[in-house]
Amino acid sequence: MRFEVATSVADAVRLLAAEPGTARVLAGGTDVLVQLRSGMVEPALVVDIKRIAGMRDIVAEAGGFRIGAAVSGAELGEHAGVRAMWPGVVEAMELIGSTQVQGRATLAGNLCNASPAADSVPAMVAAEAVARVAGPDGERDVPVAAIPSGPGRTTLARGEFITSIFLPARPARSSDAYLRFIPRTEMDIAVCSAGVSLTLGADGTCTAARVALGAVAPTVVLVPEAGAALVGTTLGTEALDALAAACAAAAKPIDDKRGTVAFRKKVAGVLARRATIIAAERARAEA
Amino acid sequence: MALDKQTAAKREFKVVGTRPLRPDGVDKVTGKALYGADLTAPGMLVARILRSPHAHARIRAIDTSAAEAAPGVKAVVTAADFGAPADEAVRDVLVNCMAHDKALYDGHAVAAVAAISEAAAKAALKLIKVDYEVLPHVTDVDAAMKPGAPVIQPGRQAETVGTEVSENVTHYCEFGHGDLEAGFAKADHVIERSFKTEATHQGYIEPHACLASFASDGKADLWCCTQGQYMVRNLCSQIMGMEASQLRVTPSEIGGGFGGKTTVFIEPVALMLAKKSGRPVKIVMSRSEVLRATGPTCSSSMGVKIGMTKDGRITAGHAKLRYQGGAFPCGTVEFGAMAAFAAYDLDAVRTEGWNAMTNRPKQAAYRAPGAPMSIYGVESVVDELCQHFGLDPLDVRLKNAAKAGTKASYGVTFTDIGLSACLAKAKAHPHYTAPLKPGQGRGVSCGFWFNFGGDTCVTLNVNSDGTVSVTEGNPDIGGSRASIGMMAAEELGVTFDKVRTQVVDTASLGYNEVTDGSRVTFAVGLATIKAAQAAKKVMCQRAAKIWGIDEEAVVWEDGAARPSGPNAGQFPPMTLAEIAAVSSQTGGPIAGHHEVNADGAGVSFGVHLVDVEVDPETGATKVLRYTVFQDAGKAVHPSYVEGQMQGGAAQGIGWALNEEYIYGDDGKLQNPGFLDYRVPVASDLPMIDTVILEIPNPGHPYGVRGVGETSIVPPLAAIANAVSRAAGVRLTSLPMSPPRILAALDAAHPAAAAE
Amino acid sequence: MSRIHVNTTVNGDAVDFLCEPDETLLDALRNRLGLTGSKEGCGTGDCGACSVTLDGRLVCSCLVLAAEAEGRAVGTIEGMAEGEALHPLQQKFIEHAALQCGVCTPGILVAAKALLEKNPDPTETEVRYWLAGNLCRCTGYDKIIRAVMDTAADLRRA
Questions:
Q1: Whole-structure pTM over 0.95, yes or no?
Q2: Which residue among C80, C134, C137 places its CB closest to the CB of B203?
Q3: Which of A92, A269, B21, B240 could disulfide-link to A178, CB 3.0 to 4.6 Å?
Q4: How far apart are CA B514 and CA B366, in angstroms?
């Protein structure tokens, strides 16, 4: 294995594109190192992108925020602006691993690891976050939802890597929330999870909602029917029941060591309902 | 001289019962303490072990030639390098360390490489070619007992078990007394339930590690983390075919054991690699190796039947226990069968136990081995009977509690025990009457452990500057150097800071049994007190010599030799320091020692109270409040007694809620890491309150009982009973993970489930 | 595979070492620099026994490549006491009997110190969640939490 420290985005692209074998981008490394040490992957090349200018910056842009690919969960959580605008994305990121893992883990890394149970991804999908991808053909912006293509697989081409995640501006009375279910209170992988982003009208009616579920399918799934169940309502019991039913119906989970099909389908709806209530409270507090 | 004849009950202690700072504290908070993996030796090689990817497979051939030729490789070993120890139990340990003709479980060691670096060793492992013939496997105890199940090791079947069960059944045991049928006939209600518990791992944070060197003249040294250096020496010397005296084993600081370090897994392999390579060899297990290939506890399947009158008297109890302890014969079920009804004074009781081999790692002891499962079954059924009759669960237990004079189901008659006192204390505790909110429930369970004594050897040297060195042979897992030093100080009448206690290697002291069975504070403490008494006898002799009087005319009181009365003459007392200072002029160094096979350990009982809240929509259980009541006999260092009570409770909570060995259909362990083998984390638990009771053990000069193991026993049933009251469903399978609880809730309330 | 020469700072001292490209910071600390106070309990970031600070940020040294330490500042348990003077957390851990076997203790102390530097007045819940990545199998955490809370209270008074 070679270890290279990229000095610029172009340098990183050149290194990654030139490697004929397996290459890995090192940002926080909290997944890469586990895979490396267990022998799950034996990369020929690891490229550290943390020393590239801008990779550890959070910058206000077009009313939203651009978050560098090497910004850690701890750094994200300390950013008052992002926390105020996208509390659900921040809380999702902060749920990953321990305090120690938060010192290193990144949004971009969580996305590229492409686990269906990745905590930050349902929140980012609900938020319509956009990944900026650098590669041999230059830069392109890709919706976060389009990055993972299956467990451990992404749509990124050889030589490409994510340089930042963009969280867009929000209308007034908008907020988000993320909840996951784990057997313990910390340190587990989500058995299932739900991210909800919504906007309320001045009268408290929900005018827009996006609901995404984690760990119930090979990739994080956006559930348009769940969002539709909320829009036009004041988020009463009936709407929340419809939301939960839509989530349970959209969930196509498996039985595995972490949970059962029945458990995941039911709890996905429970979490979506609870996350909706939290997001709505936050949105009302905005007004 | 007149040695101390005070009874423990009357005795006033000066040091025992206080809370001095532990002697190894500074080393451990500064990172200086040396654990198994922390030592290196000049010229040291690093070894790695190749493990079976199959649950059960015949090993047709192993080709190590490419690995031997790989760069940096200095030695490769397989089973072919070892002889066959005469003793069957030792042979089992060897076969577990290195598979012979068959790989018996996923993770079973098949070969090992020592090389100049970890990278070279890892690379060489990939060059070893093992020709496996995959065989059918079985990991479930009930499946393994069925006739026609895959046979793990032919020829190991117990002769007494008959033909209705498979060849995997290696043990059958039976305990009890009285007329069961008549007992059940007297009951107003009888409940019979089946239970299952999954295997759990001790989960010590320090993986097994050792460093071996082997000289060409046959002398060998081994540094390792273990609960017993003498056990390591005896096993390894037999496996290596060498004399025990030629192998010196030095225990490192130990990063947790809980029973899991009472045998060997890598030490014989390191010794053989060191012998073949002529270089020191270090092996450090990874966490996944620890979980795949070191001993978890038994999993179990049980049937428990208990009858009760409507006023809460238990009329009969019957338990059938089926345990599996991995791919080798395992007698742990016997402890389970003996312990199951220990808390109850019963006229009619029977327990039966079977052990079956499966394709799982060889079971190792885990804190009160065998007892938590069987007592979980019994305490669950007792609780259900209390619910049936609407009786208070502590009142019912008090009514039926074993006490002095009770003939236990396993044959002994109890002397002074603290069960009723613990129950009464729990009943009177504010926790028991604190209000609960909807969705919350309170659970109760008793717990029990036998406690052991065993072979023990202590030397105590009085130094000429008035300080004391205690030499003992039991690795200090939870603060025993403090408690041993305190007992020495107490007996000698010096302050604790004058005593330093060392745990030494096998060449420096006679044989000591493993640190297990909650034996150390009891047995090593006993030997230390006796060694101190021997030293006091010598000091009285020296004072007599100085004063020119008969040694019978000298007594030891308050840390000094004194004339025994006016007839003995008028001499000012001589302190330990004063006598020690002139020891060279009065006969030479002063020492006391004691060797004993300690008996009279004194059984231990405890009672746990727990409040939980169950989330009806997710099945998640939150532990809200926890209180442990336990009889310590005499708490030598109360902080570390509390620590044992709290630590055992936390492990039991993990067992009850989330810890389990998960095997796939392929027989492979699916969760060999701390990510999915879920031990409790700090945010999972509340403070764990402790109430120490002191009912002196007549078998110890200070009344000490072992305290380390009982505390893991009650949480399983206490939490199951609390969940039952909080959620209205009774779980009969551990762990009570959220999917299991939610499934039980949905089964009990089909309408809500459909929502 | 050629080794990498790394210049870094450990506990305030400028040090350098050669490491393999895939070697972890934990292995370099233990095997190259002789700093064995950081322990490996899992190697996957699940136990926290290898906790160190990297440029002041709490991390698992088993999840950091040794080569990443180039030009950075590493803090380990060996740097916590000043000479003979224990850090207040170290002293409180001994006084509260907040350790039994002690193998998790270095990581917990490093993590607790990072907590108190960030939050001098944590609630019990905050302490428990901050330390959730530090497994202790001996104590049930009770005495650890009390020791951290008590230290924080003392430091606030000081």
A1: yes
A2: C137
A3: A92
A4: 13
Whether the link from the prior residue into B735 is cis, omega within 30° of 0, is: yes
Closest chain C residue to B676, measured at CA: C46
Domain of residue C151, CATH code? 1.10.150.120
Tell me which chain C residues have a C-beta less than 8 angstroms from the C-beta of B254. 101
Q: Are residues C47 and C12 in the same domain?
A: yes
Q: Report yes or no: A40 at the B interface, CB cutoff 8 Å.
A: no
Query: Cβ C105–B207 below 8 Å, yes or no?
Result: no
Nearest residue on chain B to A241, judged by CA atoms? B755
Task: Find the residue in B nearest to A244 (Cα).
Answer: B755
Q: How far apart are the first and last CA of chain C?
A: 52
Q: Is the pLDDT of residue A263 over 90?
A: yes
Asked whether the beta carbons of residue C133 and residue A98 sit closer than 8 angstroms, the reply is yes
Chain C contact partners (≥3 CB pairs within 8 A):
A, B
Q: How far apart are CA C70 and CA C77, in angstroms?
A: 20
Query: Mean pLDDT, chain A, as a whole number?
Result: 97
CATH number where C24 lies: 3.10.20.30
Residues C72 and C102 in one domain: no
Task: Note down the domain range covering C41.
Answer: 4-79
Residues C74 and C97 in one domain: no
Burial of residue B545 (number of CB atoms within 10 Å: 0-12, 13-18, 19+): middle
Crossing angle of helices A261-286 and B738-748, rounded to 10°: 100
**Using one digit for the tens of pLDDT, what is the confidence trace for B210-253?**
999 999 999 999 999 999 999 999 999 999 999 999 999 999 99
ipTM higher than the 0.95 cut: yes
Integer Cα distance of B33 and C143 in angstroms? 20
Express each pLDDT in B536-553 by its tens digit.
999 999 999 999 999 999
Domains of chain A: 2-167 (3.30.465.10), 174-286 (3.30.390.50)
Nearest by CB to residue B678, choosing from A183, A262, A267, is A183
Q: Are residues C96 and C73 part of one domain?
A: no
Contacts of A48 in chain C (CB under 8 A): 65, 67-68
> Does residue C103 share a domain with residue C141?
yes
- What are the tokens at B269? 């392999």
